[in-house]
Specification:
- The chain is α+β, with helices and mostly antiparallel strands.
- It has helices at about 1-20, 20-30, 75-80, 85-95, 105-115, and strands spanning about 35-40, 45-50, 55-60, 65-70, 100.
- About 50% of the residues lie in helices and about 25% in strands.
- Helix 1 packs across helix 2 and helix 1 packs across helix 3 (about 75-80).
- The chain starts with a helix and ends with a helix.
Length: about 120
């Protein structure tokens, strides 16, 4: 549940930031991609669309995703994503709790936007 709320909140934050800030809209124009954050079992997933100065999110996995962040489980994902220590994400990658499928550049770009 905590993971699902977190995924929803990230989408809302991106959308509101894009509406409220001209500077943020410039960032959203720099790249165009679809990123999915999901659990390995596929039970929880959200697709984030970035481009044309906008960002929006939809429930579920988008088959046209350029990048997927696949978490081993929802509890680990929520704990790591809420951590104040940025190195926890890289630690999760190193310990196979998080797999990045597709374009790594978009994963890093998204973390910058959502951070």
């Amino acid at each position: 549940m905590k993971f699902s709320v977190l995924l929803f909140a990230i989408g809302a934050k991106l959308r509101i930031s894009g509406l409220a800030s001209a500077e943020f809209r410039k960032l959203l124009r720099m790249e165009r991609f679809v990123l999915v954050i999901r659990t390995a079992d596929g039970c929880r997933a959200r697709s984030y669309h970035v481009g044309k100065g906008r960002a929006w999110a939809r429930r579920g996995t988008d088959p046209a995703a350029d990048t997927q962040l696949v978490w081993r489980d929802a509890e680990t994902a929520a704990r790591t994503m809420l951590s104040k220590n940025e190195l926890d994400v890289y630690s999760a990658i190193g310990s196979s709790k998080l797999r990045i499928l597709g374009n790594f550049k978009y994963a890093l770009w998204f973390m910058k936007l959502a951070g």
